[in-house]
UniProtKB/TrEMBL annotation:
Keywords annotated in UniProt: Oxidoreductase
Gene3D superfamilies listed in its UniProt record: NAD(P)-binding Rossmann-like Domain (3.40.50.720)
UniProt protein name: SDR family oxidoreductase
PANTHER family: 3-OXOACYL-[ACYL-CARRIER-PROTEIN] REDUCTASE FABG (PTHR42760:SF115), SHORT-CHAIN DEHYDROGENASES/REDUCTASES FAMILY MEMBER (PTHR42760)
Family membership: Belongs to the short-chain dehydrogenases/reductases (SDR) family.
Lineage: Bacteria, Bacillati, Bacillota, Bacilli, Bacillales
Length: 251
């Protein structure tokens, strides 16, 4: 267990008030980290905090589309904990608008949340990590990042961009800071509930060797591994599927 011990580490989980983010935060806390739950809805973040061990976490409000509020949130976390060792970028937005109906505004919104916010947070927190001598950034991508899924054009393109950003940052911030991405398969998260119709779920399960959707808790192990400087000390620039075999399947 010492390989995965996060005692003394501080993590920010942006989007930690959502289904996937809160599960990852729970896993980090269970291995000794103190975790800042950051989200736009601070009441939801407080609810997540209330379900974690007392004193292990704190809620912080952040607008991922605003550089100034990201910077302010990071400063408050440092004031609270003294440092930031782990950043989990878990905020995201989906879209099921057909290709010919996607407006410029929708395209910009999807890319702003799914790509630009990660760029800004990684720039702000990554600089702190470089100055303090180390850290781990974990981005949450998607199996739709390639090959793309039908019906989610803007989302798929944004997640493909995120994969590229992850690998670029891994090169840019090495050897001090490690940057990796988890590529979840299909989980019943808030951002994709409207898209996961029963017909689509049935098609997904037929294409998934594990024959089911994922449970958010099944992301914890990969996140803990990537957060640990001991367990994943030589892992950077990796895009790691946690998808029940979805990306290993063909016809």
């Amino acid at each position: 267990m010492s390989v995965f011990d996060l005692t003394g580490k501080t993590a920010i989980v942006i989007g930690g008030n959502g289904v996937l983010g809160s599960a990852i935060a729970t896993g980090l806390v269970s291995h000794g980290a103190q975790v800042a739950i950051a989200g736009r809805d601070v009441e939801k973040a407080e609810k997540v905090v209330s379900g974690l061990a007392e004193g292990s976490s704190r809620a912080f409000q952040v607008d991922v589309l605003s550089r100034s509020t990201i910077a302010e949130m990071a400063d408050k976390v440092i004031e609270w904990a003294g440092t930031i060792d782990i950043l989990v970028n878990c905020a995201g937005v989906n879209s099921k608008t057909p290709f010919f109906e996607v407006s410029d505004e929708e395209w910009d919104r999807v890319f702003s949340v799914n790509v630009k916010s990660i760029f800004m947070a990684s720039q702000i927190v990554g600089q702190h990590m470089l100055n303090s001598g180390g850290g781990s950034i974990i981005n949450i991508s998607s199996v739709s990042s390639g090959p793309p899924l039908s019906g989610v054009f803007a989302y798929s393109a944004s997640k493909a961009a995120l994969n590229n950003v992850t690998q670029y940052l891994a090169r840019e911030l090495a050897p001090t800071v490690r940057v990796n991405a988890i590529i979840p398969g299909f989980f019943p998260a808030e951002q994709n509930r409207k898209i996961l119709t029963q017909e689509r779920v049935d098609n997904i399960i037929r294409h998934t060797p594990m024959k089911r959707l994922g449970d958010a808790r099944e992301l914890q192990g990969t996140a803990i591994w990537l957060a640990s400087d001991t367990a994943s000390s030589f892992v950077t620039g990796a895009l790691i599927p946690v998808d029940g075999g979805f990306t290993a399947m063909t016809i």
